[in-house]
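user: can you give me the structure for this one chain? tokens are fine.
assistant: on it. calling the predictor now.
[tool input]
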Amino acid sequence: MKDIVNKEINRQLRRLLALTVMGSLSLATIFAVGSFSKTVSIRDGDNVVSLVTMNTDLVKIVEQADLELGPDDLVFKVDQPDGSTEIVVKRAFDVSVSANEQTIPLKFVMGTVSDAINSAGVIVGENDLVTPELHTDLEPNMGITVQRRNKILISADGRIKEYCVPVGVTVSEAIHLLEIPLYEDDIVDKDMSEAVVNDMQISIERVGYRNKITTKSVPYKTVRKNADYLDEGKTVVSVKGVNGESEIVIKETLKDGEVVGSEEVKNKVTVQPVDEVILVGTKKKNQTVQVSTAAPGKTIPSTGSVKDDNVGTIKDHNGKTLSYSKVLTGSGTAYTADPGAITSTGTVAKYGTVAVNPNIIPYGTRLYIVSTDGFVYGYATASDTGGALRQGTALVDLYMNSTQECYNFGRRTVKVYILN
């Protein structure tokens, strides 16, 4: 019986000892776990997760937080100044590099355009254009282009300037892309359809036009007329010639501001010249001019004759001898005016006052006038003038007392004796 009791006591003691040992081991294990676990923060973009872990492998810690990682995602640890640890997850995103007519897809978690181009194995030439710029930070779905370009020199408007244009464009397309104005008559020294090559030199010659207006003298003509009241061989200037004037428009062609050609496009006479009329005497010596009838509105005996003795004297229709300095023959016309009308010299217009060109017959000159067909106007005084007289279309304009008398006279050739 005693042996049975002792055995039971020993069994209980062994059990108690085992329990004590196991308790001691459990406490040690609990102490160890508490000693090696750590609180970490995981930042995944804008999402932040905190957890306690004994893992030291960053990927396993992220997986412990139930975050899935892609094959190109980046995980790294950041130790904070307060002793805590932050695990950062950088997600890979797509970018593409387009060059040489092909597009290369890439995965990046960070970097610059320059990094992407280097990763794509693209070499950027001196004149090439990279968009966006090389130092730009990469962003999701960013498209990067490398445009191959040629350097060209363009000479225009007095200066030479360097430009870069895409490879493959024509001369015409390059000028358009660079927004260089090109006018209809401008001259380009290259074929507009020619493809641009590196270091090509293109010259644009500006062609313009301008009108230059000048005036030019129009010389008068000399007209010689026979005068049967002048001695044969004698000449008298009846109407003095006056030069006219014309307006000339010249179209000038300019290249780069220099005149290289001109063309007359208009020549219009603005002031008509006045022909010079020279009277050439044809009268034979001792010639007699027979006259008859009376002047309209005035009673003049129809008998008698006007006889020129060729020595500067004539006999009027009454047989009175008159001395004259010269005799002019030309076209005679007639005019009338309201009573009391004043002439150019300030006298009252009346029968015996005639209009003349004062450059040929001075005002105040005493005259004796007959027509070659026998009409006798008689004595007159140069007192008036008019357009026809100054233009040389008439030698003398005779005043008549009525419009009907003017119609009756019409236009006749007359002899005008300049009395002494």
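assistant: here you go. Residues 1-35, 287-304 have pLDDT under 50 and may be disordered. The domain at 38-90 is CATH 3.10.20 (Ubiquitin-like (UB roll)).
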